[in-house]
Design brief:
Blueprint (H helix, E strand, L loop, with lengths): L6 E10 L2 E9 L5 E2 L1 E2 L2 E2 L5 H16 L17 H20 L2 E3 L2 E3 L9
Antiparallel strand pairs: 1-2, 2-3, 4-5, 6-7
């Protein structure tokens, strides 16, 4: 493999005006990046807090929050479900007429006809 960057998250901090800015990089060949909130670099009081902020940032990048929304159920205005049921009933009728039985998923299904007494 030619020049494949190694995935190797690294964390650091940079002193800035008496405080520390957290830094991180995801790959060994990447440049250092600041941890940002709302587009501005974050600052922490201690180097340890800055490194912890960098770890938290990388964790958020690698494990994003999973979001889901429930869509409203749309009415079947085209009648697709009814068409599928009719088509399945027609196919079952054709199979029974030709084969004498209904085949569902490769197995023969027993069909019984019961006459009601009046």
């Amino acid at each position: 493999m030619a020049n494949t960057p190694d995935f190797l998250p690294d964390y650091s901090s940079m002193p800035f005006n008496g405080r520390y800015r957290p830094l991180f990089k995801l790959f060994s060949t990447d440049n250092w990046k600041f941890v940002r909130e709302n587009g501005t670099p974050v600052e922490r009081d201690t180097a340890h807090q800055a490194i912890q902020a960098a770890k938290d940032c990388v964790r958020r990048i690698l494990n994003p929050e999973i979001r889901a929304e429930q869509a409203e159920i749309v009415a079947d205005v085209l009648g697709v479900e009814e068409w599928r049921r009719e088509r399945a009933a027609l196919a079952a009728g054709n199979q029974e007429a030709v084969l004498g039985a209904v085949i569902v998923k490769g197995r023969q299904v027993k069909v019984e006809r019961v006459r009601r007494r009046a």
